[in-house]
Write a structure and sequence with these properties.
Number of helices: 13
Distance between the termini: 66 Å
Largest sheet: none
Helix content: over 70%
CATH architecture of the largest domain: Orthogonal Bundle
Strand content: under 5%
Radius of gyration: 21 Å
Number of strands: 0
Structural class: mainly alpha
Number of domains: 2
């Protein structure tokens, strides 16, 4: 006796559509920082320690993304006016969620991330707690409105993400060695001195809400800094990790090109394009510690 073919009409379509809408909304919250935080952090973790297993890699991806959602929801729940000008497709300005829903989602993310990290270790719980404190300083206590405070919060945030992702990808019991410690220190300095690259394209929105970023506070100096620093950091990072001459020349060339793009082309569209190129350069900077472990960049 033949079994009847499954009837597609019996599949509960509405719950699937609702779930899909919520997942898409969560992706929209994090979309901008996939290239600026998620990918550099994952590359950093991959470059500094061996991957323990496929399962640890999957867990690392999820841990990093769900914490990115926490930070983004916290930030965007208070920046609707700015996002309406700079990022109108985000969930709040495009009407997918209300401010009250965003606030509720923020606290749900905090609780969920704390519980997730607690299942691994007290160290991971401490990393999550530090990210929560940083989001409070950044969003609730106003450090996002000042160029120095914003840069310091960015250092703390990136360091927490990189430390957590590295422990996750290596296996939670793995002790981090000198390579990771040195790479964390270099990454923090690179982020602190160059992260204002993200602010050039957002000047109009930042001015509208009274935020003072480095491109607003010191327009010419900020352009000179971003002209010089990617090239300078490329030379230092290539030398520090002992890469080969071809890799060194390519890294310095890319850093110099990124700096020149920011310095020579000064409109919103050009700054958005330059920032995408900056993120490619940042990925390469985070990848260089891999050479210390594997000599992969000896050419």
């Amino acid at each position: 006796m033949e079994m009847a073919a499954p009837s597609w009409s019996k599949i509960p379509v509405r719950p699937v559509l609702i779930l899909g809408r919520h997942v898409y909304t969560a992706i929209l919250f994090t979309w901008t920082d996939i290239k600026t935080i998620f990918l550099p952090v994952m590359i950093f973790a991959f470059a500094t320690v061996p991957i323990n297993s496929l399962w640890s890699f999957i867990q690392c991806c999820f841990w990093t993304w769900i914490h990115l959602l926490l930070c983004n929801v916290s930030n965007q729940s208070r920046s609707r006016q700015e996002d309406a000008l700079n990022h109108p497709w985000r969930p709040l300005p495009n009407g997918r969620v209300t401010e009250q829903q965003a606030v509720l989602l923020r606290y749900a993310c905090i609780i969920g991330c704390m519980l997730l990290s607690a299942t691994y270790s007290l160290t991971m719980l401490g990393i999550t707690a530090s990210l929560v404190v940083i989001t409070i300083l950044y969003d609730d206590l106003g450090l996002a409105g000042h160029c120095l405070g914003k840069s310091l919060c960015n250092i703390g945030g990136y360091t927490a993400f990189e430390l957590g992702a590295t422990k996750m990808i290596a296996g939670n019991g793995h002790e981090l060695g000198d390579v990771t410690s040195q790479a964390l220190a270099i990454s923090s300095l690179v982020i602190f001195t160059t992260i204002h690259a993200q602010d050039f394209a957002d000047v109009d929105g930042d001015l509208a809400i009274g935020r003072t970023t480095l491109p607003i506070y010191a327009p010419q100096l900020s352009r000179v800094a971003i002209l010089v620093l990617p090239c300078t950091w490329s030379m230092f990072v290539g030398w520090f990790w002992g890469v080969g001459p071809g890799t060194y020349a390519a890294l310095v060339s890319i850093g110099s090109y990124v700096g020149l793009q920011f310095y020579l082309f000064r409109n919103v569209d050009a700054d958005k394009k330059s920032y995408r190129q900056f993120n490619v350069w940042l990925l390469l900077i985070h990848l260089m510690p891999l050479h210390y472990r594997t000599s992969v960049f000896r050419f």
